[in-house]
Amino acid sequence: MVNLCPVMSNPGWPLAKTVSQRTSRRESGAVQRKSRVSDRLGAWRSHHRLVASQSLQRLLTHPLASILTWMVIGIALALPASLFIALDNLQQLTGGWDSAARISVYLHDSVSESAGRRLGEKLLEKPEISDFSYISKAEALAEFSTLSGFGSVIDELPDNPLPAVVLLQPALGLGSAEALEVLVREVQQLPEVELAQMDVQWVQRLYRLMELGKRVTLALAALLGLGVLLVTGNTIRLAIESRREEIEVVKLVGGTDAYVRRPFIYTGVWYGFGGGIVAWFLLLGLVAWLDGAVAGLVGLYDSQFELHGLGVAGSALLLLAGVLLGLGGSWLAVSRHLGAIQPQ
User: Fold this and answer.
1) Is the model more confident about 328 or about 92?
2) Which of 30, 147, 268, 323 is most buried as measured by Cβ atoms within 10 A of its Cβ?
3) Dihedral angle over CA of 20, 24, 30, 36, nearest 10
């Protein structure tokens, strides 16, 4: 915490000037001055700079306690941020998978090839479908025979057991699971269709899991943010109690609540900012540690995926979150405990 009584150590301080002017007026009985707005604003800025620097200096004079507090705040910030990084990378990895989603429409045996192609052309008129392809029963059997390796066995079959298929390609703007499911149900109701099935339903399940992960991460971030508020508030409360006598002296000589509150608020801000820096370094080390393993894994699949960290915007948001949580925790502590301290 900063020196709350700069009157004794800094004769040029605005409060000292005020006390000195009042003493001079009592001695002379005739001098009266009015301070200009610019002078007040300059004194206000000077006081903020001094309080901010002295708050940081006081934290650095007790490095062990400050580092422990910064580590607690940093770990609380890094946990939800690491989950956000994981979800963001997973979303980038699966970003192009929904474009490969296709709807396989299996036709009844009674539907002729010409009727199947007309059905594909009719479905192509829907804005939800961008393209289609028709696979006849013979083409389906030939493809299955080639891929399965059971050509000789299939040749012995008396009839072709495979149905004709119409492959539908959804439009690029139709990427949500709900829209795709609605489209599948509409196609399933057509009289020519025996079964309509989406080929990448597992991708849609993955998207649902990612949405659940986002909500869990937000809930965890809220709980850990509350923890940061409580840690900062309790630290500031202890600082207020340890300087109770000094606060009473400052209020006794005319210090306002805002004047006394300011150093504690800046202390909370420095706690939050330091915790954000610690969280940033923890995440940087985590991404660097996982990068080699991820690169080796995606190399086996000939993928161009690269593991990404927070980036500039994410780093700034992390530091801002730390500062705001530190500010909020210190403000709550000061609002609750500082007003109860009054000079006797």
Assistant:
1) 328
2) 268
3) -20
